[in-house]
What does this fold into?
Amino acid sequence: MVLLEAAGFGLPLISFNCPSGPRDIINNNNGFLIENNNDELYKENLIRMMKDRTMLDVLSQGSKQLCLDWSNEKISAIWMKIFK
It folds into this structure.
């Protein structure tokens, strides 16, 4: 939920690839999914985002698009199909 909330504000995403969830949300268009416990790669990608305004803007747009894909209408439609 935290990642979706951040995406809702157009923030680029970065997370370790923990077992529950981030791989379903983060992709190359909206952020970085980092191998667990790879603190160095996490730090490098975080610094890249802070230094490269163009990349930051592209990832921000990807986060906004992600929110459209997870809108209430789309999720409700998926659940309605499941219940039928």
User: Anything to note?
Assistant: The chain has five helices and two strands. Residues 53-69 form the longest helix (17 residues).
